[in-house]
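Page 37, continued from 36.
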């Protein structure tokens, strides 16, 4: 469904997306008919088409509540007045905060050169505690609001309707993927032969020249595999479990390639690091000495780079499985 969908189409899509697949078509047809009749009645009373459509949808209310009625799914835990606001806020917090805590604790423990077991246990305990606190305190706040009869100030209107999701994978997504992969190849070649860093007119590669040809060839194969995957995904017009598995394998393979070289100290050009030390002068050396307990500034930067790569790969994997789940529901 295109992004220029009418308010009615967006409202119906927002209502049926959480229903069972076998019930979606019937509910869609019923809503289309009832909304059309209600709009037609208002048009006969002299209202404009836009005003009539907005008034009818506003009377129907939050599509989440309407969907719950069709599914015979009660909305209570705190109470129907606050349930949807509480649930949406809690889901948003649980998607963001625990991941940030896990990454931050693991990063800090890694920089401090803690043993692997301590890194894992500390991060897991901190994340678990965060989840418990989020659930408890968020729920407690809404319980107090309900008992006090306070108004959260959150009111639903048709302008909050999400854009209808497109079916399958669009051509723009394919082009973006291929352009990004092309830029990656271009960056590799430029770094090797032209250099992003110039020292006295000579190119100073950032990546270790020893990676050529076999290390870079391995990365090139992964890039080609990603390009083929993007084309297959486009031709299949959507995600499936098999494609999500392939996406996970490719992402893990890139992560392994990056982290193995990073841990061995073979990813970044040693001459480039020496150039940074020379350019930094005494101030850089003093800062590196202060960070000696953590292995020096370069080790800290390597840890940060590794975590950045891992987070990017992790999001790519999760995003693939989320899209697969959406495709199966749709």
């Amino acid at each position: 469904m295109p992004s220029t969908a009418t308010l009615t189409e967006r409202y119906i899509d927002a209502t049926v997306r959480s229903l069972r697949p076998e019930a979606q078509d019937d509910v869609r047809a019923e809503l289309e008919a009832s909304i059309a009749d209600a709009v037609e009645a208002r048009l006969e009373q002299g209202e404009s088409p836009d005003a009539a459509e907005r008034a009818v949808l506003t009377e129907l209310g939050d599509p989440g509540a309407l969907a719950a009625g069709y599914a015979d799914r009660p909305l209570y835990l705190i109470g129907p007045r606050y349930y949807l606001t509480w649930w949406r806020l809690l889901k948003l917090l649980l998607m963001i905060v625990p991941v940030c805590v896990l990454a931050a604790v693991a990063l800090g423990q890694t920089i401090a050169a803690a043993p692997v077991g301590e890194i894992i246990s500390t991060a897991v305990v901190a994340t678990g505690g965060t989840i418990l606190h989020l659930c408890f305190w968020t729920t407690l706040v809404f319980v107090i609001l309900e008992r006090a009869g306070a108004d959260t100030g959150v009111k639903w209107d048709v302008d909050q309707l999400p854009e209808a999701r497109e079916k399958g994978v669009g051509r723009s997504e394919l082009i973006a993927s291929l352009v990004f992969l092309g830029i990656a190849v271009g960056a590799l070649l430029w770094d090797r032969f032209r250099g992003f860093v110039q020292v006295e007119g000579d190119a100073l590669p950032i990546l270790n020249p020893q990676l050529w040809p076999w290390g870079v060839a391995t990365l090139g194969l992964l890039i080609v595999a990603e390009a083929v995957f993007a084309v297959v995904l486009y031709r299949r017009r959507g995600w499936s479990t098999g494609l999500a598995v392939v996406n996970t394998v490719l992402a893990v393979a890139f992560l392994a390639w990056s982290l193995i070289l990073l841990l061995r100290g073979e990813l970044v050009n040693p001459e480039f690091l020496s150039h940074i030390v020379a350019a930094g002068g005494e101030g850089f050396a003093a800062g590196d000495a202060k960070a000696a307990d953590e292995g020096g500034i370069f080790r800290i930067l390597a840890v940060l780079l590794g975590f950045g790569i891992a987070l990017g790969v992790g999001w790519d994997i999760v995003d693939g499985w989320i899209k697969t789940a959406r495709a199966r529901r749709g």
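The chain has a mean pLDDT of 85. Flag for discussion at group meeting. The CA atoms of residues 169 and 235 lie 8 Å apart.
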